[in-house]
Structure prediction request, 408 residues.
Amino acid sequence: MTAPVRTRSSADLIAAEEPVLAHNYHPLPVVVARAEGTWVEDVEGRRYLDMLAGYSALNFGHRHPALIDAAHQQLDRLTLTSRAFHNDRLAEFAERLAALTGQDMVLPMNTGAEAVESGIKVARKWAYEVKGVPADQATIVVAADNFHGRTTTIVSFSTDETARTGFGPFTPGFRIVPYNDLAALEAAVDETTAAVLIEPIQGEAGVIIPDEGYLAGVRELTRRKGCLFIADEIQSGLGRTGRTLAVEHESVVPDLVLLGKALGGGIVPVSAVVGRRDVLGVLRPGEHGSTFGGNPLAAAVGTAVVELLETGEFQLRAAELGVLLRNGLTDLVGRGVVGFRARGLWAGVDIDPAIGTGREVSARLMQEGVLVKDTHGSTIRLAPPLTITGEELEGAIGALEKVLTQGA
Ligand SMILES: *Cc1c(COP(=O)(O)O)cnc(C)c1O
Prediction:
């Protein structure tokens, strides 16, 4: 990386945002100007190890050469057609994404929230047309402490008051049960239930990993009761946990899988619903769509992402380096860490509240050249690019140790 190009300082740019940018985020005070691989550089040329990776949108690191190359080539040829016409990139993207995930069909969208909305619409239509639920009676069962996005319908079934308050009236038709509780799910699912929608690992909640057998139990229950299983793999999927999909840890195949974040390679927003033909097949022309969904640039980048995952290399790295992450965190238990949950290159770390909030620890780590994000309270989330080296990972754990044990 070469010298920074900006002339305005970080402090100046941060101050300039305040009056003109909606205050719906509270970023750490770092202004990133460039990035490559696992490293980002601020406007003053300071370098930081990226241990958040865009909430898993950057699973392949910043500007992975194969992804940048695919984007450049496509930019020089064709960027947008709308779905009014076919484009020459979409068929291959859909074929390879379906094959990668073991599903039949793909519904391309842009953001994660759109994939969730699309999954909800497909499940409702399936309930009316295939299952025979009376009109407008369909229910979808979700888990407490979920995070599925920010649209009006999605916050309707959030249990996070900050995400909901002030945004009603809400969309009806959702039932909320505790996560990781098959008995509660059993009681909530009835003849009106179109689907059970859950995250295989709850990311925003603090990387909450359900007990072994839960995902297989959800699969068995939904099959037995005749409703769909929708897995939101927007954050857990595409290599993060050491498998292509987190549901693979229990050899589970959901009826619909929601993908996003890393599917766009950190370059463009790309999301998708992938699923069985008899479920996604309920959609007819005009019933659902998106101007940008399935655009040729997105399809080209998405295909390049799928190509990286087809090698299995990234899943393997996440699994192998995940051992290092787990060992490093285990060493910190009792030394500033009160507990943690980890799978692959993904961890929720509960910091001793006496040391500071997750936000305060994140700010101190930033000073040590490591970027992370708190989830809530005293929990921080570690989710580095899957391209991280063992040495870099050890450096990040060393920085965390320093911050936790030296009071920084
Ligand atoms: C980030 C996320 C979403 C929403 O994705 P956006 O692209 O921000 O709309 C949905 N579900 C899960 C599990 C997520 O982590």
